[in-house]
Amino acid sequence: AGSDNLYFFDKNGNLLWKYETNGGFGSVAINPDGEYIVAGTGLIAIDNHFYVYLFDKNGNLLWRYKTGEFVNSVAITPNGKYIAAGSWDDYVYFFDNNGNLLWKYKTGGWVDSVAISEDGNYVVAGSHDRNVYLFDKNGNLLWKYKTGGFVNSVTITSDGKYIVVGSDNLYFFNNQKILQNLNNNNSNQKNDNTNP
After folding, report:
1. What is the mean pLDDT of residues 32-41?
2. 3-state helix, strand, coil in the chain (%, to 5)
3. Higher pLDDT, 151 or 26
4. Residue 13: which residues within 8 A CB-CB, separation 6 or more?
5. Is the pTM of this model over 0.70?
6. Spatial separation of the C-alpha atoms in residues 146 and 114, rounded to whole Å
7. Which residue among 14, 121, 167, 180 is least enclosed by CB atoms within 10 Å?
């Protein structure tokens, strides 16, 4: 749970630990076994800075990385090996669990949502430039697709084969092309104008 502090509970509602800051958190994620917790600084800067944090399940801060703005979205692979983050500085960030920045990519607007496949091979991001971006784990842009509105939410299947995007409509992709705009029923529309 995030607010001015980061709180970690067990399933019975017992507070196991909290991490205190002078600001707040805007996004949190946890891997399935609870070994790793990733968090991003919210709208209020911490000591005039914005960060991506990684904690272990005992509340130890493993590392933090300074970004240029509010961190609106974070995601972590089930094994805790890779972390993705999206920030209002317009960047998508991709880290390993040692805190090494493996790559970052500047979009045309602030990044509202990120998701990562189970093996870390694919990262999808949604931006206020109205584009959906799909990257491989090395930071190569595989494609982008311009929607009709701000991209507020993205998710990806564990194998990275399918992507769902919330924008002006609900879009359903495979990792090669758009399959269907679910609101307008435009099936099998090719993603032919958005390859890098």
Report:
1. 93
2. 0, 55, 45
3. 151
4. none
5. yes
6. 16
7. 14
